[in-house]
Design a protein that fits this description.
mainly alpha; about 140 residues; rod-shaped
Length: about 140
């Protein structure tokens, strides 16, 4: 039993549809692979940035706690407490609603204002490891 002859247009349609099917399949596979690789790269970048931010906030909090042990004016005491509260309220869980960038900017700006209030500034001299530790007990920002 032989198959009836097919119209040449039907054959061309089959070729085009097969090509589209394979193109779609390749696209889907490439998209899945790209998402997997992008997620991994995004995770690594986020993890590294999170560590840097945690170190920065931890350093600032340590300075605040040290400064709170010293005698200061009421204005400085309020600023120290405000900065400490901002850091303690910083999101510690993955909350999509949290404004992490805004919180970091607020903490950094408050930190800068506090340093200005204390009359200190960030300098290479204040954090130089070449100075003996007995000379670096000023806990300055």
């Amino acid at each position: 039993m032989s198959t009836p002859p097919r119209d040449i247009n039907d054959l061309f349609d089959d070729i085009v549809l097969t090509e589209e099917k394979h193109a779609r399949q390749g696209y889907d596979e490439g998209l899945a692979d790209g998402q997997e690789q992008g997620n991994e790269e995004g995770y690594r970048l986020g993890y590294a940035q999170g560590i840097q931010l945690g170190e920065e906030l931890g350093r600032i909090l340590g300075q605040v706690v040290a400064q709170q042990q010293l005698n200061h004016t009421e204005k400085v005491k309020r600023s120290l407490e405000q900065l400490r509260e901002l850091i303690e309220q910083f999101p510690r869980t993955n909350d999509p609603e949290a404004d992490i960038i805004g919180a970091v900017e607020t903490i950094r700006n408050t930190h800068r204002r506090l340093r200005a209030l204390l009359g200190t500034k960030k300098s290479a001299e204040a954090s130089s490891p070449s100075q003996p530790s007995s000379e670096r007990k000023d806990y300055s920002f």
